[in-house]
Amino acid sequence: MSIKDKVIVITGASSGIGAATVVNLAKQHAKLVIGARRVDKLDELKEKYSEAEIITQKVDVTNFDEVNDLVTTAIDHFGKIDVLFNNAGIMPINPLIKGARDEWQNILNVNVMGVLNGIAAALPIMQSQKFGHIIATDSVAGHVVVPNLAVYNGSKFAVRAIMEGLRQEHHNDGIRTSIVSPGAVATELYKSSTDEATQQAELENEKEIGLSAENVATAVAYAIDTPDNMDINEIIIRPIKQP
Ligand code: NDP
């Protein structure tokens, strides 16, 4: 089945990697249900890429009911869900000594519970369809720990473990699982850091060496477009200058 016949649900679609993926897939005439909190950004994409069928919906991935509604929208409008791209994420950077417990909780809620909420909403439907593909944006930070990023690292290590568990539990149900793990990408992600000096350093690093969101979207589209008997379990993409 080509991309144009696929129903694809995307979280974190209002900017960065998610928005670039919407554009890539819209140009291939996919049927898209796209979610984020900033619906105005989603509507701009829908208007600009009218060659694809795009449904926009407000979703906060920390809220299971909203994630479930997003998946239900795909079923109500298109009768199936081929792909769930669990992409929404945040990356506040802080040393552990700051004890930023609210921030830690938020990272875990968005990056880990957000992915689990997507799985909880889509998996029973995919199991009964006997097909489906769940993709998560993980990170090189899910492989390598660096100072000041420990909680984000923990969230991305967790996503990798959860996605591997999903693969092991459901590969016999026709369900494919993929993780896309980029290194530095030039997006708005640096804005989720509460520390201004860190924001600036992160922005400069991304501008200096980062991949584009479009680079990563190409990898997501590749994973989606492979034949159903193939499971691209993980794609790691570093900018060439990243150690
Ligand atoms: P952006 O900040 O550009 O995009 C993040 C997206 O997540 C936005 O669309 C935002 O939408 C959405 N989001 C954040 N919080 C929530 C929430 N509670 N509910 C719903 N949506 C939410 O950054 P990226 O494109 O870089 O990030 C996308 C993914 O890529 C993340 O999982 C990130 O961890 C991962 N990643 C990024 C890297 C990078 O260097 N940029 C490297 C490796 C991985 P809105 O605010 O409208 O809700």
Explain what this protein looks like in three dimensions.
With 243 residues, the protein is of the alpha/beta class. The chain has a single domain (3-237), classed as Rossmann fold, CATH 3.40.50.720. The protein has 7 helices and 7 strands; from the N terminus they run E-H-E-H-E-H-E-H-E-H-E-H-H-E. Strands 3-2-1-4-5-6-7 form a 7-stranded parallel beta sheet, sandwiched between helices. Helix 4 (101-129) runs parallel beside helix 5. The longest helix is centred in the middle third of the chain and has 29 residues, at 101-129. The mean pLDDT is 95. The structure holds NADPH dihydro-nicotinamide-adenine-dinucleotide phosphate. Residues 11-18, 36-38, 59-62, 87-91, 110, 137, 139, 182, 184-185, 187-189, 213 line the site of NADPH dihydro-nicotinamide-adenine-dinucleotide phosphate. GO terms for molecular function: oxidoreductase activity, acting on the CH-OH group of donors, NAD or NADP as acceptor. This is NADP-dependent 3-hydroxy acid dehydrogenase YdfG. Keywords: Oxidoreductase. Belongs to the short-chain dehydrogenases/reductases (SDR) family.
